[in-house]
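Sample log: Leucine-rich repeat-containing protein 57.
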Amino acid sequence: MGNSALKAHLETAQKTGVFQLTGKGLTEFPEDLQKLTSNLRTIDLSNNKIEILPPLIGKFSLLKSLALNNNKLTALPEELCKLKKLETLHLNGNHLRQLPAAFGQLAALKTLSLSGNQLRTVPTQLSGLRHLDVVDLSKNQIQNVPDTVRELQAIELNLNQNQITQISVQISYCPRLKVLRLEENCLELSMLPQSILSDSQISLLAVEGNLFEIKNLRELEGYDKYMERFTATKKKFA
């Protein structure tokens, strides 16, 4: 992509607060963006070949939305965690194995998409995020859901297409969790905590494609209670 094209994009971004440059084969984060650290509210650099997100990302103090889907990121800089206004972070289809230690400082974060990475566990850093609504961790290499999940504030947690064999009973105590997606994992019925059915707030539990038949789920104690919540929620949205 020529300099003049980039210049035009930068001029538009200065006026609109939005910088979108997708599918252009970029191998690095455009350095010229640092002229706009106090303008940009949205950056979308999806479908490129970016391998490194530079520390200067921490300077975009007004940034609300950052999308870097389908790039080649293997790690994220700690500086990313300085983005106090960031509400939406889309990092699907990269090569991430973990999140920065300070990730819990992204206090405004509402939506986090990490589908199609190389995470092996549900990151404990997510527990500190008080405004989190939707977390997508589908298509990773997660094998178990640890006790720390109890602190997760999300309304929806998507763990479809992982390798999960174990789930902590603590997931039943997530204060806001309404939707739990566990499709296409390696769960035996005995490994699904019954308290999810009997004692949680969860009103949509998606478990198709595991190592048990759905009809057997219906025989578990607590299933009636779950169905009451499921039906009540359906009515609300009908």
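Observation: DSSP finds four helices and eleven strands in the chain.
Observation: Residues 72 and 94 are 5 Å apart (CA to CA).
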